[in-house]
Amino acid sequence: MTHLPYIVAAYGLTLGVAAILSVNATLRLRQARRRLAAIEQPRTRQPS
Amino acid sequence: MGEDRNFLTVFIAGTGAPGTDGSTLNATQSLTARTGNLFHRYANPGRFLRMGAKLQPWLTWPALVLSLAGIVWGLFFSPADWQQGDSVRIMYVHVPTAWLASSGYMGLAVCSLLSLVWRHPLADLAAVEIGPVGASITAVCLATGSLWGKPMWGTWWVWDARLTSVLVLFFLYLGHIALIRAFDEPQRGYRAAAILGLAGAVDLPIIKFSVQWWNTLHQPDSITVTGAPTMSTSMLWPLGLTTLGFTLGFAAIVLARLRASVMESRVRTILAANRGRQSAAAAPQPDRATP
Amino acid sequence: MTRKSRRLWLVVACMIGLGSAAALTLNAFSSNIVFFMAPSQVHSKPPPADRTIRLGGMVVAGSVHQEKVKDAPVAIFDVTDGQAAVTVRYEGILPDLFREGQSVVAVGTVNPDGTFRASEVLAKHDETYMPKEVAEELRRSGKWDPRFGKAPDAASWNTMTAADAPKKPATQTP
Asked: A Pfam family matched by this chain, by name (chain C) (predicted)?
């Protein structure tokens, strides 16, 4: 009475969604940080 | 609304918390003022980014370690259930996602309250970021529930009170996601979505108590605040690990998205300011550039 | 009152209003939200023969008869809620979890003679999760028979693990 396909599907789905969310968040954070650094660097050197 | 604009400019300029409301007249006023100040201390984007960067590893790594440990334990080392056999292992991913679907919405409702009453700018950004994460988790909860229901109950789906109220929660998430992005002027979207977020919180007690108030195919909770858990400790441990791990993971993902969102809004503001300085007309900065 | 506290009270008032509206609505539709009827409800208020209802209860121990009619499996069993019992006839394959003492939900219609004709049978497992070994141990020691009701309190079998359960069968007497 094992229902292996159901168990594998449930775990696969959970891990898949978790992976998508994490990778998406990481990439977005990295890109935002890079853009902000690129834009803030010259501004802070301005004498104003 | 001068007050709101004041908060926003403070948020964008990042020059500290807004001023207090002078004299205190009654208890509620002082309460709202005090709590408002407490929250607004973290509205400063620079301080939020510093604290967020410090907090992030403390969420991410424990989340990964605990989730993986719980999953391995649940899949390979926990015992099979006496009536469900190995299918009971679906519980170790289904229950944490169900808990997160509800508590994620609770977070959304708290953000909505902060947004409506205190006009907290960070709460609006947090609400934008919690929505998609919570909706994904709720979808996973429904899907794993289906995958558990088919072999055990003999059906993918039934319209009982528990399943239906969780489906309603999923649609509330989708509605919030759509509404908060539906307006050209972000502030109006935040306001409308916050009202939906608070109103939808009515569904949370319905989900929680549906299995007690009505006959449902879904079984009652095994772990309650008042009673002893009706579950063997050898199953309770992996379940506790995955629940804690997934919760930290949810927080870590939301925090990472929120940090990115604050950075993005800062980039937009700086770009808009640069454009404004360059243009000879020197027209006042449009509200649209605010987060 | 500042604007902030006025907004706070407005939100609180709206939530109270919305909450009570939801509570009243759910209360009014309570009988429709209920997923299944108990056998005693079916007895006291028999639904019309053409109406499909869901009947929920426990399978009475010793009442299950399975036979084959023209290669199709037919199961006849009694479902009880402790006060009344209804005989159910179901043509089809029963779910894995079906057994004596198990809670089930049968979908179908009530015949004029009071028996129930099911088109679908769903197994409803309870909230007790217990390792197989512990369940077998409890059964062998006579502490619990799954055919007659719920498992004993978790605290009494929490200490029994898969490893030590088979080692002490004789000492476990009620």
From this structure: CcmE
Q: What residue spans define the domains of chain C?
A: 3-33, 39-124, 127-174
| A7/B86 CB distance under 8 A | yes
Count CB atoms within 10 A of the CB of residue B59: 20
| CB-nearest partner of C22 from B31, B113, B202 | B202
**Helices B91-118 and B161-180, packing angle to 10 deg:** 50
Mean pLDDT in residue range B76-84: 86
ipTM: 0.85
How do residues C39-57 score in pLDDT, each as one tens digit? 888 888 888 877 888 888 8
Distance CA B287, CA B11 (A): 13
pLDDT for the residue C22: 86
Question: Pick from B158, B146, B201, B99: which is nearest to C33 by CA?
Answer: B158
Which are the contacts of B267, defined by CB distance < 8 A and separation ≥ 6?
A32, A35, A36, A39
- Residue B74: DSSP 8-state: I
* Assigned CATH topology for domain C39-124: OB fold (Dihydrolipoamide Acetyltransferase, E2P) (2.40.50)
C65 labelled ligand-binding: no
B14, pLDDT greater than 80? no
Which residues in B lie closer than 8 A to residue A45 (C-beta atoms)? none
End-to-end CA distance of chain A: 74
- CB pairs below 8 Å between B and C: how many? 154
Contact call for B153 and C97, based on CB within 8 A: yes
